[in-house]
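Is this the right way to post structure tokens for a design question? Let me know if I should format differently. Anyway, here goes:
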């Protein structure tokens, strides 16, 4: 697609400039025109381009090819190649804002999900500010919206255009739908929150009467002029900001009241926690430059801007600051609004004092392009660094205060101690973040954390080995800075605190009551963005590294508001979810989904039962034989874990994932190893395969027991160690010498569940296994699935070319067996051949050899 814009001081100029112009798919008309003046424009456009979708609105200023215009009208013409448009209009009623929104989007939502639009441009005309409830529908259905409220200073003559008619008190939506359509959005604000948090203790409508139990005017005078009276003009530059029902509210003082209260532009409810907000145009300029550079690399086709009428970001039509930066990507087209619409992870918000944009790309390739660095104007005299310093200092003080209060461990005797030494134990000295002890104190003593995320750098060990500890710690600090910057942007608008839990783990506590699915989505997107970022090593910019993450999320309440986890247990649950994510090769996991496996009471019950089974020697080994595919003779048997619980034989599927998180797992491995040792020593012709996980090699006592086992026994190829590939072997460089050590002692190596995980063929083959065991998921349907049959054939050929034997699991019928025989898979195993047998049943055939 592509877009062009035409500025026309008059309709005659419009007619002249449209001569020879090809019909577009979408027309946006933004004009500094009263409703009567705009009617001829609407009529002409309907005659000139009857097939186009035509929308627009009254706009005090508009943007044409990057220049800001204050007269006539700007026409934006967009041509789509791979997308199509859907559009609708509905009455806007501020008294029934929620229903108005439902009415506007009803035709779109009636379509099947795959046909719904990727993004909507919404324009609304209303004499009063748009009610938040109008966008409830966007939160319910995850709609992505850009646009704004129409407005010229003569409110009575404002309008919106839909096709050939001009409306007042009307809403319009145009949806853009495309299989390969990509859209990017962002919001830039010229404000910064300064100072401590205060509490609104009395308010009535839009009049705020008391803050911290003092007259509101007195609070303004105290902080802005040390108690002296100030003008409303000065106060107007300092809004009060809060987040209410997940919507940011910026209330600007409009008038002093006689009783000491202040009439504000927005209502602030009693109990709201507020901070002063200062509007300063250069504050966010440096922080947004990397965002615009990223946008530049994504090759957008068109950029539409919806900016606040209060922004003075141009001089003599020439853009300044953020508009100028965006113009370096593409010439801008857009309009100024009396309220801008912007969709975050938590629904659509109505912004003030903001610049929003919608960038569209139809190619969907997602490939970055080489782009010249975005040039930022010299801001040596900017006050932004000072404001950032102030706000970050207050943020640090607030977080430290919360930790001190919640920990409740600072005694009166500490008052005589040095302040620095008294607070150091709350912080990580390398990054300045609060530490695990601080988090534990807050979890135990305060009830202000709704969600907790634990992020682990999975490739941290390799970074340490390659670049050293200093570089790894520096990368961790870069990650922490990136997280804080992303989470603190106004497009997110949540309260949070970051902690360093360990060398490679960072925790983020969320203090906003937001639906769990939205927080999970936020951190999933963050994790994906982080893995696509390039981080530089210390003093070596040419060495750019990427970080691989696994994320665990825990929430105190579920989607319905029902208790899910005690706050004191959030760290345990988040860590458990993170481990589950890593084991199952998922980017993120949530504790609410872990509840599907077992309740806490059931977990504790299983732990007790397995402990008793170990004490009573009720951890059993069952054996499933495997056979030579060509001769049909038994080659050996795989030792399978079972437990006798309440007199019944129980599969490990009921308890193994839980037990892996305890020290009982190592004891189970040792018990199975002991049973295999006894059988190997008693039956000299028996071959046994023992399952081990990566966890076993990382457990000191288990590794020591394995080494002692091989010192005592000469297995001479009669013991096969099966390592489960679906658990994602990652530390190849670390595990390889251990495996070679055991192979030199006579063991064979098998990679189990091959094909079930994310196989790294190069590194797996580097382990030089003796056997590849093909997982049942790619074997069980080869009699009906030709693609899987070819996959098994190619894996078998590759393995044999490297001198590796193959073994197929889940041989469950004669057809599957015959196909595997024909493919010359070496060994077969499955219920069709033999079910798992108890130790005595399996060894019965060998008893004659020992008698």
């Amino acid at each position: 697609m592509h877009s062009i814009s035409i500025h026309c001081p008059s309709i005659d100029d419009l007619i002249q400039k449209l001569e020879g112009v090809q019909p577009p798919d979408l027309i946006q008309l933004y004009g500094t025109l009263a409703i009567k003046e705009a009617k001829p424009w609407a009529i002409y456009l309907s005659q000139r381009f009857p097939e186009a979708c035509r929308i627009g609105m009254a706009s005090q200023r508009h943007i044409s090819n990057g220049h800001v215009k204050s007269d006539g009208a700007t026409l934006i013409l967009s041509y789509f190649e791979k997308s199509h448009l859907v559009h609708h209009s509905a009455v806007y009623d501020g008294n029934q804002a929620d229903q108005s929104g439902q009415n506007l989007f009803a035709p779109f939502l009636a379509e099947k999900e795959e046909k719904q639009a990727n993004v909507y441009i919404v324009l609304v005309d209303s004499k009063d500010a748009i009610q938040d409830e109008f966008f409830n529908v966007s939160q319910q259905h995850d709609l992505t919206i850009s646009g704004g409220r129409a407005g010229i200073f003569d409110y009575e003559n404002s309008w919106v255009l839909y096709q050939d008619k001009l409306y007042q008190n009307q809403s319009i939506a145009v949806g853009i739908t495309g299989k390969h359509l990509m859209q990017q959005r962002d919001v830039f604000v010229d404000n910064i929150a300064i100072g401590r948090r205060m509490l609104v203790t009395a308010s009535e409508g839009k009049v705020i009467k008391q803050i911290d139990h003092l007259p509101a005017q007195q609070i303004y005078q105290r902080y802005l002029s040390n108690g002296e009276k100030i003008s409303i003009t000065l106060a107007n530059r300092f809004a009060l900001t809060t987040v209410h029902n997940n919507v940011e509210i910026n209330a600007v003082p409009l008038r002093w009241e006689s009783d000491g209260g202040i009439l504000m532009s927005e209502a602030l409810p009693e109990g709201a926690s507020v901070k002063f907000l200062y509007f300063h145009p250069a504050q966010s300029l440096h922080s947004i430059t990397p965002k615009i550079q990223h946008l530049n690399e994504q090759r957008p086709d068109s950029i539409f801007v919806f900016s606040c009428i209060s922004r003075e970001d141009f001089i003599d039509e020439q853009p300044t600051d953020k508009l100028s930066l965006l113009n370096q990507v593409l010439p801008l087209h857009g309009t100024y609004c009396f309220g801008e619409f912007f969709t975050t992870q938590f629904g659509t918000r109505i912004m003030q004092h903001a610049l929003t944009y919608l960038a569209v790309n139809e190619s969907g390739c997602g490939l970055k392009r080489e782009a010249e660095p975005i040039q930022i104007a010299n801001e040596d005299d900017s006050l932004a660094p000072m404001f950032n310093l102030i706000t970050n200092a207050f943020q640090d003080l607030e977080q430290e205060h919360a930790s001190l209060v919640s920990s409740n461990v600072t005694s009166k005797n500490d008052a005589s101690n040095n302040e620095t030494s008294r607070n150091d134990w709350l912080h990580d000295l390398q990054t300045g973040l609060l530490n695990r002890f601080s988090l534990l104190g807050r979890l135990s003593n305060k009830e202000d954390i709704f969600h907790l995320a634990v992020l682990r750098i999975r490739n941290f060990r390799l970074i340490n080995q390659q670049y050293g500890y200093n570089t790894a710690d520096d990368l961790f600090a870069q990650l922490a800075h990136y997280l804080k910057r992303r989470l603190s942007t106004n497009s997110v608008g949540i309260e949070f605190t970051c902690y360093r839990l360990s060398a490679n783990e960072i925790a983020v506590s969320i203090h906003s009551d937001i639906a769990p699915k939205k927080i999970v989505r936020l951190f999933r997107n963050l994790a994906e963005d982080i893995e696509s970022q390039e981080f530089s090593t210390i003093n070596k910019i040419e060495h750019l590294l990427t970080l691989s993450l696994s994320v665990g999320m825990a929430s105190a309440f579920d989607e319905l508001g029902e208790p899910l986890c005690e706050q004191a247990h959030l760290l345990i649950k988040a860590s458990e979810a993170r481990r589950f994510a890593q084991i199952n090769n998922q980017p993120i996991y949530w504790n609410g989904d872990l509840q599907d496996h077992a309740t806490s009471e059931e977990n504790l019950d299983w732990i007790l039962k397995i402990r008793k089974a170990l004490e009573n020697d009720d951890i059993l080994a069952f054996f499933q034989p495997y056979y030579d595919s060509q001769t049909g003779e038994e080659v050996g048997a795989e030792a399978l874990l079972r437990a006798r619980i309440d007199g019944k034989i129980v599969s490990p599927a009921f308890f193994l994932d839980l037990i892996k998180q305890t020290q009982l797992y190592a004891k189970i491995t040792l018990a199975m190893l002991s049973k295999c040792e006894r059988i190997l020593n008693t039956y000299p012709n028996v071959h046994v395969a023992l399952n081990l996980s990566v966890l076993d090699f990382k457990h000191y006592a288990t590794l020591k027991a394995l080494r002692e086992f091989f010192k005592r026994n000469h297995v001479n190829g009669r013991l096969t160690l099966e390592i489960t590939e679906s658990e994602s072997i990652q530390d190849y460089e670390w595990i390889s010498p251990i495996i070679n050590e055991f192979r030199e002692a006579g063991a064979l190596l098998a990679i189990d569940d091959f094909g079930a995980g994310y196989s790294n063929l190069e590194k797996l083959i580097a382990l030089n296994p003796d056997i590849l065991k093909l997982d049942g998921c790619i074997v069980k349907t080869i009699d009906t699935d030709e693609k899987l049959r070819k996959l098994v054939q190619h894996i078998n050929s590759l393995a044999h070319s490297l001198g590796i034997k193959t073994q197929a699991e889940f041989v469950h019928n004669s057809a599957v067996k015959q196909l595997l025989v024909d493919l010359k898979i070496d060994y077969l195993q499955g219920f069709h051949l033999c079910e798992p047998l108890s130790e005595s049943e399996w060894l019965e055939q060998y008893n004659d050899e020992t008698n």
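Format looks fine. Someone answered above. Worth noting: The longest strand covers residues 191-204. Residues 98 and 133 are 5 Å apart (CA to CA).
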